[in-house]
């Protein structure tokens, strides 16, 4: 078999049996999937990045930044909805690329998603640790600094960060039904916190704070969009629930599109109110929403916002961790990763080994290393996945025009082309060092593919 035929071999559309028995439990409905999407999207973006991006990148025009990033995500979301309904499987963009673009592209995007979700969970865990310790300090139980930082920052271990990852590992290991219930409760808490903020602050908006509206120009708006794109990661994790949805062909598009629409509206409202209440330069703080509540003299509302932030960050980690475990499961089934990851526990109906192994790895990263700018890898990884999903819709429309598509992306190929172009444009707005780190990660992945995955692929076994 030639090298070319190897890297471009594709998997049959029905290879993952999206409507059959995969060992996972089919318990999720459209509301569950929508709450998963909201749980993944609303987190650090609204409680942290909105203020930072407004102060350093876009000013009051951060509202436009959210519109730009949300529009780019909408194009990608429509592409995800089509492929999730037509192809299914728990591999998300990895599985779609395997069916449409070939094994090498599928491996690259799968490897990329492992980076995206893994780094995101670790980075958010570190942010969660700060909020959690603030809550402990409020009741006189704050942890000493040595238990809040890893060795590189003069401490021993970031104990809360590692602990929350391991706690979520236990929750996900118990079962998807229990995990979804916890996610639903947490989503309601953070939506309540956001609602209280809007109700309290909207009456204190001063339009003078919106002048000048674009102090950093259009480049600032686009820089803000690239930065707050982190706020939108996670809606694609809904598509990894295809094998646990009761009616995936109908419900996955609902969960993906509704959660993105709801969260985009919330982001725009919060950004507009936040920059209208106080001058934008003062928003460059770790918890801008709670800080504004304190300035307005509403300490009780600040406490509720802090609780909402903790709940929000928890659901982000939970859903991304869930998505990561399903992608690793899908890649292992296909032979691109070792078979030890392919087993589903019969009692819990979850990939227990995957959950525990990746959980230990992410807990170690969160507890021992400073994430810092490496978190920007999450943005470029997300944009790469979105870009390839948009391309995949176009390719499959040509190569498999008769494929049943319960949901069709409107105005194709225009919408997927706009999605691909938007993602590429935002990716080019990221710093060059982010591209360098991303290139190093992909180089390591290609080495693994060449020396292991290509030879152990299930398709390779079929051909031999």
From TrEMBL:
The keyword Membrane applies. Pfam families: AA_permease_2 (PF13520). It is found in: Membrane. It is a multi-pass membrane protein. Coiled coil: none annotated. InterPro entries: AA/rel_permease1 (IPR002293). GO terms for cellular component: membrane. One of its GO terms (molecular function) is amino acid transmembrane transporter activity. Keywords: Membrane, Transmembrane, Transmembrane helix, Transport. The chain crosses the membrane at residues 33-54, 61-81, 93-110, 117-136, 156-175, 187-204, 216-235, 256-280, 300-324, 352-371, 377-399, 411-428, 434-452. This is Amino acid/polyamine/organocation transporter (APC superfamily).
